[in-house]
């Protein structure tokens, strides 16, 4: 039996929370196992002053962790599924998806109780093109202002008075104990979440059966089915970089119900579509929905967005 398991993690408060969550669950499952954290600073955590899409996209958050696993310095990496690219380096893969936390976006403000209460021209902080497009579709008067950094930094910027409100993933706020900062949970028809939002995934070496056996009990199959459909849609749309794409799956009457959205960054053009089907076809459902969106003009919208970035 493996006596030791090392978890590669980013050093943000949220990443550490998620890594410690996995650590605690593994320690409880395997009392004889020594579980250690290997904290690593990713490039995405160092470059905070430019939109992610301009510095190479989401992959920047996982590359250092993947290198550590390939070099044998760590055994698993714990990720926010929202930040995990579609393709993995040879020898690595996703082994576990944990039970999903609340997948919704959250409206956070010290002044206004809800999005609908924001006055004309209010300043809203987000650097997510997906959130920006959906906000502007509903409220073209809003001023969207750049906001990056980890969850704590973003809250501090709101508290400093730089914004009337900010939008964050509810999951991150809840995990860090900031649920009381959430003024309004945005319903998914107001802000369709990003693929994988709210889910934590575990990556490991694909040939490491001992490690895979140790982490297998953390897998939550229903969450995995949802995230699989969402990621299949993202992959077909080549949504590797930060893009105005939303996709969100739930179970309904024993089937998967997947909704997708592709938007121009100004929110003036938003394509939406949805699909239902058997859970066993999660992957196909995602690809089919992506292809329908492409046929409806998503390719032209995305080409324009990539051109801007
Ligand atoms: N892009 C950063 C990121 N990655 C995952 C989360 C939240 C936690 C989750 O989705 O599981 C966040 C912060 C946010 O979007 O507010």
From TrEMBL:
Residues 225-294 form the Porphobilinogen deaminase C-terminal domain. Transmembrane segments: none annotated. The modification S-(dipyrrolylmethanemethyl)cysteine is found at residue 241. It catalyses: 4 porphobilinogen + H2O = hydroxymethylbilane + 4 NH4(+). Residues 5-212 form the Porphobilinogen deaminase N-terminal domain. It comes from the Bacteria. Its cofactor is dipyrromethane. It is an enzyme of class 2 (transferase). GO terms for molecular function: hydroxymethylbilane synthase activity. Pathway: Porphyrin-containing compound metabolism; protoporphyrin-IX biosynthesis; coproporphyrinogen-III from 5-aminolevulinate: step 2/4. Binds 1 dipyrromethane group covalently. GO terms for biological process: protoporphyrinogen IX biosynthetic process. GO terms for cellular component: cytoplasm. Gene3D superfamilies: Periplasmic binding protein-like II, Porphobilinogen deaminase, C-terminal domain. Its EC number is 2.5.1.61. Keywords: Porphyrin biosynthesis, Transferase. CDD domains: PBP2_EcHMBS_like (cd13646). PANTHER family: PORPHOBILINOGEN DEAMINASE. Tetrapolymerization of the monopyrrole PBG into the hydroxymethylbilane pre-uroporphyrinogen in several discrete steps. The porphobilinogen subunits are added to the dipyrromethane group. Monomer. Belongs to the HMBS family. This is Porphobilinogen deaminase. It comes from Simiduia agarivorans (strain DSM 21679 / JCM 13881 / BCRC 17597 / SA1). The lineage of its organism: Bacteria, Pseudomonadati, Pseudomonadota, Gammaproteobacteria, Cellvibrionales.
